């Protein structure tokens, strides 16, 4: 999905929002678009176009913008409007610090998590591998998000699920600056599979350690790429 296509598709979403829509639900729609890669950093969000597409009141949309600004996904520039935020190196370090705690802790719940939660991790890995074989690298990126959401889901906490959705949306903004998607994501397809195989084989402690190392590698990879691109 490119250009204004994401905005056109919101018209259908507006039907789902209906008259009982809230700022939180509008924010979730925009957050999801960020997480799926439809809104790159620097995108200007037209208040009028969004109000029309979603069928919501001006005050509702502005409250949604305020929520997303607090989540570091949007930024308001005086006299210019609201834009999708561009993360920096400090954001990367902070994001990975939070993810190590949340996802590492969630992965330890693998042995006692409901089977459907474990299956969600397997499904995410399968989707990512199939997308890589088909060279659909944008879908590989989406599969990576699904994998980490599914890892968090093992904990069975709605609060952690919500927090990680916010973190991963911000991460997707970081990934937009990493250049060629294949070059960036290709190695992580196998790393995700390795973590799954360890957990599925009962080696949960080893899977947790592999995830920690994965985060160390990914963090340094992103920081190097960000510095190289200025």
Automatic annotation (TrEMBL):
Give the Pfam families listed for this entry: FCD, GntR
Give the molecular function GO annotations. DNA binding; DNA-binding transcription factor activity
Name by which UniProt lists this protein: DNA-binding transcriptional regulator, GntR family
Query: InterPro entries, per this entry?
Result: GntR_C (IPR011711), TF_FadR/GntR_C (IPR008920), Tscrpt_reg_HTH_GntR (IPR000524), WH-like_DNA-bd_sf (IPR036388), WH_DNA-bd_sf (IPR036390)
Q: What keyword terms does UniProt attach to this protein?
A: DNA-binding, Transcription, Transcription regulation
- Source organism, top-level taxon: Bacteria
Q: Using the record's annotation, list all stretches that form the HTH gntR-type domain.
A: 20-87
Q: Which SUPFAM superfamilies match?
A: GntR ligand-binding domain-like, Winged helix' DNA-binding domain
The scientific name of the source species is Lentzea albidocapillata subsp. violacea
